[in-house]
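Weekly structure sync, notes
Attendees: PL (lead), two postdocs, one rotation student
Agenda item 3: pending single-chain targets
PL asked that the sequence for the first pending target be pasted directly into the notes so everyone works from the same version. It is reproduced below exactly as submitted, 282 residues in total.
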Amino acid sequence: MRLAILTPTDDYYVDWRTGAADYRRLFGNALSLRPWREPGSLGGFDMIMPLLAWGYQRDPALWVELLSAWRGLPFANPLATLRWNTNKAYLLELEALGVPIVPSFLAPEFCQQDLDEARNAFGDVELVVKPTISGGAEGTYRMHPGDPVPVDVMRREMLIQPLIPAVAEEGEFSLFYFGGNFSHAILKRPASGDFRVQEQFGGTEITIAPPSAAQILAATTLAAVKEQLLYARVDMVRAPDGSFQLMELELIEPSLFLLHAADGGAMFAEAVRRHVEKVRSG
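Predicted structure, written out during the meeting:
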């Protein structure tokens, strides 16, 4: 079995080598790490996973170009699904299919009028604005009533959402699925006074048994995709009324937090092996 995982370049500002070591632990010498920008020939691999392809949001045109160039190669999740999942506007498509999401307003060229319309829709509350193609909370802002449009994201395509209090009060739930089966779940909490749960901003995580309502939302979300997925991370938050709302569906390069899995990632490794065997058998 020959596997490839796409990675950032060495100068990427967030540590990705810890995650790479985790995958090496599972797959040993069967695994090759390739920088996503210049991966060389990917022919001959039984499976290619962009699990560490962090930073594509900084050059989305190249990313989309490469997704087209890689057509026909054995990617773990379908390339068309990766392209769809690249832009967070997919949330609105899932909403149209009946998936409850965090209320979202799409601003194709973010300006004051968009901000005003979002406030009319969501009320006089704190907002979170984020680029539709983003990662690691880059370009994401918390906006209080009366705040102007941040200059560096003006005229960019942005998603505007109300700040959900439960993110700070309780945390953000992440549920992980491998080969369509539930593996484990974590609760990610931001540092005091922050709303970003990423580790580089002081966020922390704990292993949890997810509430049944969270599992139902995850299952509903995955069913809406209608594609066979090797891996998926479903991020959600508890809404003010106690229900769960989808924040993101991560199908490209999610941190899988395998050390929080009771089996240390054995289910993931087995899902990879079975997928490869299925592809080989035609």
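Discussion points:
- The chain has a mean pLDDT of 93.
- The longest strand covers residues 181-189.
Action: rotation student to compare against the earlier draft before next sync.
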